[in-house]
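Quick question, first post here. What does this chain look like in 3D?
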Amino acid sequence: MLEEILSLKLYPRAVFSSIVKWLPAKELILILGARQVGKTCLLYSLIQYLIKQGVSKNQIFYFDLENFEYLELVNSGVNNFLRYLRTYTTDKKYIFLDEIQYMDNPSNFLKLLVDHYHHEIKLFVTGSSGLTMRHKFKDALVGRRITFELFPLSFKEFLVFKEKDDVLRILKEATKQKKPLLPIHHQQIMNFYEEYVLYGGYPAVALLNDLDMKKRYLNDIYNAYVHKDISAIFNIENIMAYNRLVKLLALQMGNLVNVQELSKNLGVARKTVEKFLKILEDTYVCLFIRPFFSNKQKELVKMPKIFWYDTGLRNRIVSDFKPLDDRVDKGNLLENTVFKELLFMVENKSNIKFWRTKHGNEVDFILDEEQLSAWEVKSGEIAHIPSGLRSFLQYYPQAKAFVVNERNYKIEKNTCFLPFYLIGF
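> Answer (accepted):
Ran it through. Tokens below.
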């Protein structure tokens, strides 16, 4: 198995360098993310890195806990697990546990290893469900883990996976010079960007060039999600209502979510809808972002807006892969794609918010961090500051402002006009 891992060609992920910094620490490294988002390949990249750093092959152990034999071993307890490892080496061991949510009681198992054997063992753990992890971990691993979230590819990562070095070079140069691209380069890059918007950032999907194969793979990802995560792990009885809710939410992408209205449309209890929404968020399918406010009297503070971690999966759910210019939801798709890019820019995804006042002024995204920033997304090319953004800057003059649009690239006072494809460069 290890030889096979070492022979793989793996593409770098943005989070990799942050994880590597924690290799000397005693805390376990926990990587959370949706199915098929690349968690296993990230573990493989860490294994390759360790080997290059001089760690011996017999010090590295990889366990896929979807394999019943491995699952049985870890469920048998710490003593049996250590006994197994020590038959191979007495040196420090680097343990990779993939999909730990399948364990009966991962919390105590990991706690014992970190507390009593961190000099002997360094742990790397992945999981596909934040909800299951929190339920099984409780508070036992507080202070004993460093958590990283792995999302579908950013556009920059997408180009890396497609090995478009020339395009990456053009975009980096444009960012350095702060100038719009030449028309020929703009069109070339918009073609890649449209593919990214329509089919999303799941690594395996990005690597495919055939569009029918992309659609089939997205279909397989969703079916595996429904049958493995939803039916098996969460034991949802009314799976039809769950699927209807998912489709309703796919059609409401980028809009406010009214739980009472969803409950009425689906004919199920409000508590059931709330449970379903929690599952969608904790399995990294959707994220519900909250309003930003400092003045509760003037600003809207109740309902969240829904965004999808992957637009390709969302398009599969609504069965629509038409080109952007032929779509009524073009603006929503581009806004959601910008949201995906912002995930890579924040310390905590809960810091991504939106702004809306009772008088109708609104801004698509507010990054509520040390440096406050406001992001307005427009599907075409725009040269003026939108009224909602102008209004926000009157309330919060210290904020940086960004107008994300198709092509215009300029800086006007504290506002940057930025093409979609340059976020993250």
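Residues 155-422 form one domain.
The first strand starts at residue 28 and ends at 32.
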